[in-house]
Write the structure tokens for this entry.
Amino acid sequence: MIIRILLVAAALYALAPAAIAQPRSPQRPPAAPTPESQRLLRALEDAFVSVADRATPSVVNVSVKVKREAASEGGPSPEMEERFREFFGPELFERFFRRRAPREEGRAAGSGVIVDARGYILTNNHVVENASEVEVRLSDDRKFKATLVGRDARTDLAVLKVESPGGPLPVATLGDSDKLRVGQWAIAIGNPFGLDRTVTAGIISATGRTHVGVATYEAFIQTDASINPGNSGGPLLNLDGRVVGINTAIVSSGQGIGFAIPINMARDIMTQLIARGRVVRGWLGVVIQDLTPELAAGFGVKEDAGVLVAEVMKDGPAAAAGLKPGDVIVGFGGTPIKDVTDLQKRVAVVEPGRPAPVAVVRERRTVTLSVKVGEQPSDEAMAAAESGDEILGLTVEPLTPETAQQNRLSTRSGLLVTEVAPGSPGAAAGIKPGDAILEINRRPVADAVALKQIVAALKPGESVPVYLQRGGGGTEFVMLTAPRP
């Protein structure tokens, strides 16, 4: 056996020189890029460079000095903290918003873009919220004190104004976001983490994104162009260098998922803020919810055809027109309604005081009512109007620093429970007067309207976790169960 192995080894050794001597097939040299491919790549490169050169001067760094009470909490309001903690993620949120904010009562908050030669600047509401002073810095290092013209929390937009006696300001050109196509190039410019004039590129991933949870009125542009904390308020541009969106949020748990407010929406909001200092929207005065398959079957409608009226607000336009809880709104202004977001957007653009036909399914029959659209109250007015209402046996009111101190609560966000009806779902859950409701079903609540909307979406008998803070600062979860009919 050993001899056989040695003979095989010798034979292989003898053949090795012959094998080595065999000429190898020559390797083909790498193909040189064709002049046409080089030309196309150079053209694309030149396009990106051109956008950066033309648009960057109009992008500003927005630095705010927050009010004392806001600075002590670390920056944004409690509602915006909860909202953006979810999108930026706890680690980025703490690093960017909370840890940087207490220094000198100020923080480099984000970005903005000059959109008018008169000195008007578009940015995000959450960038300038609670600001006592706002300063903007241009790419040429000129600095200006900015005046807050107005802000709109429901779209997360704000308008600033600066005066430039020393010379004209660089102005960005606005595009048409209605013409965006999924797959086309997108370029973001801003100041992520204080890194001025950062340019990133990607594509338009989607348009008309709703149910993102950042604003009340949503039709976001989704992009994979890199957006980070500090990009907020900066422009999203097309390959022509025209602004097509205002960058506003990211999904921290994903990669390459960012959102921008369409510039057509931003332009309309800006026009109203400049003219009035506030945004006027139409309002029906109803609490509505999307239809589930079970609810749609129960009310005799299609799942994707309409929204369910959970509550009709007293003395509101809908109440005056005869709408009732349990009605399913299937049409507004002669147009079919798909979901809650669709109805909200259509009602908002109607001039207050104008009548509009509302088609509802009631007891499996379609009825058309005429509603005189009202003006949407401010968030503060709506919260005040709803503060004394009972919700599942709970009477609540917005938490203030004074009531928080009185009840030995450290939180500054949420709803204060003032009364609990005996035998109610709230009492069964163990909720007590003096508790602060921070979240329901993992969603933060800042006013009674938000609480009602969450409760209205519950199915009979459904239980959801309620996150409470009790006197003394302790927190705990309890389970709240919607009553059965």
